[in-house]
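Work through what follows:
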Amino acid sequence: MALAPLPPLVEELRFVKGEDEIVLLAEACAITDRAFDAVLPRLRPGLTERQVAVALERQMVDFGAEGIAFESIVASGPNGAVPHHRPGDRALQPGDLVTMDFGARYAGYHADMTRTVAIGEPAGWQRDVYDLVRAAQQAAVDAAVPDTDVSRVDAAARDLIAAAGHGADFTHGLGHGVGLEIHEAPLMGYGRTGKLMDRVPITAEPGVYLAGRGGVRIEDTLVVRANGPELLTKTTKDLLVL
């Protein structure tokens, strides 16, 4: 008997979620939103990245999460140019952009949200990059409809960023499926294959990363629907100046 590779049958079975699963995922996202709202007023110069990450994670548990969906990312100032920066002892400083990527786990389902805020009045280049990423993220969300190639959803954001001269500064895929695992099918990026379907939860998380200066990423968890994408993370995407 010869062994043969098995197609991703389990992954395909989990691709589309039931409405009961979406309810649980929505609650994980609601906890994530509430944690951000609770921690936001505490952000100030002198607080370290690690302290911010711990505050977010503790707040999610206090609001009913069974745990965190993944190790939280808090990247301030020049650290924001590293998409998967691990929070450290760098203190927040006036003039920083601070990127926070985090999520709650509720009843086994994982939320994923990223917001970037400004500590003090942002410089012109910071506003420009933020506005670009926000527009790109909205373009991707709008493109996330059934029967659309995942590569086209990625391109909706990537092409806009490239047209602004920052194509080389968007260094990862647009997003991924989410559910009982934080990273599930479909993976959405340049060259990825497959189509979206109704009731598929995904993330849309474009970013621009400028070495030595900082970066911006904006991310939502959403559900693909026949009548238009349903955002599960609802925190404002306006640039918050603290």
Q: What stands out?
A: The mean pLDDT is 96. Residues 19-39 form the longest helix (21 residues). Helices lie at 9-15, 19-39, 49-62, 124-143, 150-163.
